[in-house]
Amino acid sequence: MTRIFAYARVSTIDQNPDNQLKEIEATGFAIEPYRIITETISGSLPIARRPGFTRLLDKMEKGDVLVVTKLDRLGRDAIDVTTTIAKLEGIGIKVHCLALGGVDLTSSAGKMTMGVINAVAQFERDLLIERTQSGLASAKAKGKTLGRPKVLSNSQIEEVLQQLAEGKAIAAIARHFNTSRQTIMRVRGTINN
Q: Rounded to an integer, what distance in angstroms lies between the CA atom of residue 106 and that of residue 83?
């Protein structure tokens, strides 16, 4: 007999997974309460590091079905979701996503859907990289200085170098300029380059 499990995740304690569970119930899935795992944890955390999902995996076995409302419940990005679904499929667990019409993501149609989603995600990543590079090139062409702003002015850097040459301690120099030791060590590193 096929056992059905549900995984509902929310990001903050202000949110409640009940809406996800009601949505699952409304689609006709009757799930025993002890087969429902809810979790309050950031979606930015990979699913492999989520304690609730780990507990869920410990309960599930070949032939079981996992129901989620949306793909983002299963992972932080398309790669994480794909990896999770492949892992579940390897165990013999079917994954149904209600936002995709309840399609089993381990089926042929589900794999095709995941392929399209992954292609779109990669396209969006590529577009973001192109826009970022274009914006940086445009800013550079307009003479804008890129990167972190300098903590010390050129005259302060000269003074730091002089104090280093005099043998003063890095911590003392950092205190004098109201900056970190790391900043002074970076200036010291320019001597050798």
A: 12
Per-10-residue mean pLDDT of the chain, 193 residues long, equals 91 89 91 93 85 92 94 82 90 92 88 84 85 92 86 91 92 93 89 64
Pairing assessment for the beta strands 103-104 and 94-97 based on DSSP bridges: antiparallel
Catalytic residue among 11, 107, 153, 180: 11
How many C-beta neighbours within 10 Å does residue 79 have?
13
Please give the Cα distance from 101 to 109 (Å, whole number). Answer: 11
- Record the pTM: 0.63
* Structural domains present in the chain: 4-116 (3.40.50.1390), 154-192 (1.10.10.60)
Tell me whether residue 11 is one of the annotated catalytic residues: yes
Angstrom distance (rounded) from CA 175 to CA 161: 15
pLDDT of residue 193: 54
